[in-house]
Amino acid sequence: MKKKQMLAALMGVAMLSTLLAGCGGGDKEGSSEEGGVKEFTAFFAVPGTEINDDNEIQQKIAEITGAKCKETWLTGQTAEEAVGTMIAGGEYPDFIDGGDGMAQLYDAGALVALDDYIDDYPNIKEYLTDQEWDKLRQEDGHIYWINQFQNIYGEEKATTHNDEAFWIQTRVLEWAGYPEVKTMDQYFDLIEAYQEANPTMEDGTENIPYTILCEDWRYFCLENAPQFLDGYPNDGSVIVDPEELKVIDYNTTPTAVKYFQKLNEEYHKGIVDPESFTQTYDEYIAKLSTGRVLGMIDQWWNFAYNVNDSLKQQGLDEQGCDYVPLPITIEEGIQNKWHCSGSVLNEASGLAITTSCEDVEGALQFINDLLSQEVHDLRYWGVEGEDYEVDENGLFYKTEEQRLEASDTAYKASHLCTYSYFPQYAGTSRDGINAMQPQYQPTEFFDGLSDDVKKCFEAYGAETYVDMLGTSEAPGPWYPMYSYSNNMTTSTPGGMALTKMGEIKHEYLPKVVMAEDFDAAWDEYMEAYESCDPQAFLDEMQEELDRRMEEAAKYQ
Amino acid sequence: MASMAKRRRKENVAEPTPKITWKEIKRQKVLIFWSLIIVIYGIIFYYLPLGGWVMAFEDYKPKDGLFHSAFVGLANFKQLFSDVTFVRVIRNTLAMGVINLAATFIMAIVFAILLNEVQSKGGKKVVQTISYLPHFLSWIIVTGILHDALSGSGIINELLVGLHLIDEPINFFAHTKYFWPIVAFANVWKETGWNAIIYLAAITSIDPSLYEAASMDGAGRWAKIKHVTLPGIKPTIIILLLMNVGNVLNAGFEIQYLLGNGLVQSVSQTIDIYVLKWGISQGDYAIGTAAGIFKSFVSIVLIVIANQIAKRNGEERLF
Amino acid sequence: MKEVKQKKSKAQKSVPDKIFVVLNTLFMIAFVVITLYPVLNTLAISLNDGTDALRGGIYLLPRKFTMKNYNTVLQKNNLLTGAYITVLRTIFGTVTALFANAILAFIVSRKRFLFKRSLSLFWVITMYVNGGMIPIFLLYKNLGLTNSFWVYVIPGMVSAFNMLVIRTYMAGIPDSLEESAQLDGAGYMTIFLKIISPLCKPVYATVALFVAVGQWNSWFDAMLYNRMSPEFTTLQYELMKLLSSVTNQGSSAEAMKNAIGSVTPTSVRAAATILTMLPIICLYPFLQRYFVTGLTIGGVKE
Fold first, then answer.
1. C208 and C116, same structural domain?
2. Does residue C19 belong to the interface with chain B, where contact is any CB pair within 8 Å?
3. Chain A: nearest CA to B15, how far in angstroms?
4. Smallest Cα–Cα separation from A80: which of C133, B130, C195, B97?
């Protein structure tokens, strides 16, 4: 008996000691040095791809800058959750972009104020104008993060329209002899006429004349067209009247009624895909990849990266299944603003340095070095002779082989290192010849185009996607308003209203399009919509607009 | 003979726990020692974090932490229950929880019993191995296949049109009335084989002499299932039923999220989706915690009621 | 179904029995077909070119065969570390959890145990209450469990569900065995290890399977508690990172450009799923004999 009790006691102790075993685990150091190379850590609250630890270009950059950074990305959590647990634990990586959780990090005092340092780092200082730096100032007057994207250096090199548009397959335009299509009515008339003449593809697959993606947050393909149709740029959640400087709700404009009524008519004519409102993103992409869909509204980045390769692989580009954008407005005579020039500063988030970083100066030096032309070229173009070649005029180009290699997943992980969530440039390189990033290099762009698109561009006298739409002046200094509404939370009446409006639109807009009696359905929708108190939202947006204009006035 | 298993169990239940006396404590000191360790463990890992519930009564801000956020009383609960949407998601969650529970529960038992009746040993092994495989498919894959099968040109519509049961394809995901059955079907499809594992293990505990005795009495297969197998696994069935009753509010998140769309959101949104949308995505943890407390409260009430019913009927119970 | 000649079915098979056998066989065939389809479909997609798969129409066989999806998954950084940690956590986690749940189940299934109701209730409650992500995170951090291997083993050791499954099984074992052992002077530990446990093999196998599968598949803990400790990464976390990088959740042009390209989410997901399933498919036959043989425990007689 005694022995067994001893045994039992021993096992109990063993169990307890397992329990406590973890307590020995020490805290991890934030940044560390290894063989003279500083190692930083970074967390970006967006999904992304990790590169290999022995990545070649990362190594090369480390040799130049004396530092490298281990990047981790969001996995299976919302940005707010990831940031929330970090704040609770009080441990951060050296660099962070909290995405939608940026405000939380600021509130928690997790970020280092950068304004005192910026002047010491010429490349960082140069990265934004004084006005832009001031836009990044928080309520306490300090700058905590640097917006990384859509920053144009020198002359803008616009090739792809990376934004929203009415898209149409080149075969439709070719069939009709490349007509001018300027209004929504003309657009649908063209699709109807084509569909009647050619109900199927060459292999007998039935065409889908027009489809709409409505899944979750991607329902912008349905809901935000009225702002563009009225000739306003993509402020996201409201229209800003540039004369009066008043916010306008695009959901209730006469154009919105016309647009949805048109969709309703087309739905009953069988032009709008009946599966529009139930399809998932995957299914939508699969549909576009078969080349069956004649037209849709979408953001370029939402479909093109997936669909274009697939069309090419199947030889569907030869049948004219590639998409080009059209400069459509609600009626003729309105200047469209689907494409606007200029940098866009989304001041809601950016790259920040946290209080856990033990070497803030080293971290800033790293950002500074990443913006030097040499390192920037390494990040985006790669290694000369391996990833790109230089011709006698100093123009960078890629061979077909190099282009293929750059799209290979394994090669990307082991060789390329773009530090894609660190500040970066678009536009023209400091050498005045090349684009900062290969995708904006005109020669690269043309070499990659399919014949049907080239032919179409030629017919319209265009050289790029952007030329199809025409470029508008950059909108006013308030732009873009979505950088404010994206960060609204349900803690304010306006944020509450915005979330409710989103819910209602998700449910009622499909109903409105499918309704037998459009007017009744619209009235019902409007009633539900008004009950969300949209005015509260508009008031807050107006307030923000006024604030932004006031700030901007300081620079005139 | 048929009630042997039952009788055996009945006797067990009937024996009362002795009174707490020093003598008895001394006798059971090994058991008490181990329980203590396990209870300490439970307090640390399960009960200590419940301190986080104060969050539901605070205007929780991550920077202030649990201890310094402003106390707001029941404001978060008021916000939840004054929202008509929340009341609707409770209905959806309950409905789907109950339908799923009934469907997956019955299917797993039926499958386990029928599989046990398969005579070929090889066949049995193959069927069982296959049966649990879908458990390892993620919801995103299962819903993808389901979406395909139920689409306008999918196999289900082709079948229905081919059999002249309907004239033109049904867009299943556009109608609110199909949503709950589709979710239940998907759950059954994915989990039947996996859930049956417990019952198959339970069936092994049935004394084979009971089957022999039943055969001797000339009982057919149905009779043996009814009088030997079912009573034999009844304790397992009841325990699992009791546990699952407490889970009806955990009807899920992923499947509804992946299968839902704007047209059916009035029936597809569950409490978890609501919390994500109105709480977590807005950085508002307090709302999520408040909803969690509400779910825990309902679960425990349901469990206690179910347990009392089981107790009154002299059945197996949880505690 | 011809060689059905079991010792117990001496009696001539009746007509209803035959009908039953036929119907049951049909049911099983239908069941297998319906169940197997998604798995085979996933397999086919995992072996098919990703871009080609976007066109749809792939059912049981790949149309454009490629191993690229598997290559994408397998060339992933840290996969070996992840596999090593996952195997370790599965072994450690399963052994400790099985022991802890078994002993707890043993205690609460003792008829004479003074606190069996309160102890059961104590654990049943844990199934339905949850402090939330942040308080649990804080607790683990203060216990030193973050950035450590033990966060995979210790917090999930006892689970009320598994305990109840074992308890129910133990309750079916006749008391006479315990009583006679006690008369022979055996203590509770001896009864647990030598008498009850050997009879509980099927239920132990069940619970071991549940725990092992849970350990094998879990990744959230690796992300939450060991995000900054790549040496404790797990296989599933590495796969999840890969999946979320190919899954086009990016809400902006930057995020989409940052996605992995050239392979599609659907096909990589399929490949990852098949790779995850493999070890468990291999493990299962070893455990299966405990459930499938059925009707073999002759030792338990009153």
1. yes
2. no
3. 27
4. C133
H/E element, B169: none
Contact A324, A173 (CB under 8 A): yes
Q: What is the pLDDT of residues A130-182, one digit of tens each?
A: 989 998 999 899 999 999 988 899 888 888 898 999 999 999 999 999 999 99
Look at residue C91 and tell me if it is in a domain.
Answer: yes
- Please check whether residues C25 and C161 belong to one and the same domain: no
- CB–CB of A80 and B283 under 8 A? yes
Residue C221's CATH number: 1.10.3720.10
Task: Kindly report, residue by residue over B43-70, the tens digit of the pLDDT.
Answer: 999 999 999 999 899 988 877 888 888 8
Contact in structure between C212 and C94 (CB atoms under 8 Å): yes
CA dihedral C213, C214, C215, C216 (to 10 degrees): 40
Q: What domains, with CATH codes, occur in chain A? A: 36-155+345-444 (3.40.190.10), 164-338+449-477 (3.40.190.10)
What is the per-residue DSSP string for C19-35? Answer: HHHHHHHHHHHHHHHHH
**C233 domain residue, yes or no:** yes
Neighbours of C, requiring at least 3 CB pairs below 8 Å, are: A, B
Nearest-by-Cβ selection for B283 from A84, A505, A506? A84
Residues C120 and C194 in one domain: yes
pLDDT for A458? 94
Given a contact cutoff of 8 angstroms between Cβ atoms, the answer to whether A468 and A161 are in contact is yes
Residues of B in contact with A495 (CB under 8 A): 282
Q: How far apart are CA A287 and CA A284, in angstroms?
A: 5
- Give yes or no: residues C129 and C44 share one domain: no
Across the interface, of A490, A507, A514, the residue whose CB is closest to B278 is A490
Q: Are residues C108 and C221 in the same domain?
A: yes
From C111, C291, C298, residue closest to B208, measured CB to CB = C298
Q: Which residues, other chains included, contact A328 with Cβ-Cβ below 8 Å and sequence gap of 6+?
A: A165, A166, A181, A182, A183, A184, A186, A187, A228, A229, A336, A338
Of residues C265 and A394, more confidence is placed in A394
**Over residues A455-478, mean pLDDT:** 92
Per-window interface: C 110-149 vs A, CB < 8 A: 133-134, 137-138, 141, 143-148
C264 found inside a domain: no
Contact at CB, B319 and C168, closer than 8 angstroms:
no
Distance between CA atoms of B111 and A395, rounded to whole angstroms? 69
Which residue of chain B has the CA closest to A86? B62
Flag whether residue C240 sits within 8 Å of chain A, measured between CB atoms: yes
Note the pLDDT tens digit of each residue in A49-90: 888 888 999 999 999 999 999 999 988 888 888 898 888 888
C81 and C62 in a common domain: no
Whether residue B258 and residue A280 make contact (CB cut-off 8 A), yes or no, is yes
Percent of chain C with pLDDT over 90: 45
Please report all neighbours of A, defined by 3+ CB atom pairs within 8 A.
Answer: B, C
Greater model confidence, A18 or A429:
A429
Residue B9 or residue C245, greater confidence: C245
Q: Is C62 exposed, middle or buried (0-12, 13-18, 19+ CB in 10 A)?
A: middle
Q: How far is B176 from chain C (nearest CA, A)?
A: 25
- The reply to whether C87 and C116 lie within a common domain is yes
Contact C36 B129 (CB under 8 A): no
- Tell the CATH superfamily of the B4-17+84-312 domain: MetI-like (1.10.3720.10)
Of A145-149, A365-369, C193-197, C265-269, give the lowest mean pLDDT range.
C265-269
* pLDDT, average across residues A31-39: 70
| Residue finishing a domain among C23, C47, C67 | C67
Q: Which B positions 130-189 lie with beta carbon below 8 A of chain C? A: 130-134, 136-138, 140-142, 144-145, 148, 189
Given a cut of 60, whether residue A9 has pLDDT beyond it is no
Indicate whether C302 pLDDT > 60: no
On whether residue C298 sits in a domain, the answer given is no
**Contact between chains at C135 and B55 (C-beta distance less than 8 A):** yes
Distance from CA of A349 to the nearest CA of B (A): 15
Q: What is the residue range of C179's domain? A: 77-246
Same domain, C92 and C179: yes
Token pair for C93:
């986690």
Q: How many domains does chain C have?
A: 2
Interface check for B206 against chain C (CB to CB < 8 A): the answer is: yes
- Other C-beta atoms lying within 10 Å of the C-beta of residue A426: 21
Query: Is C117 within 8 Å of B296 when comparing Cβ atoms?
Result: no
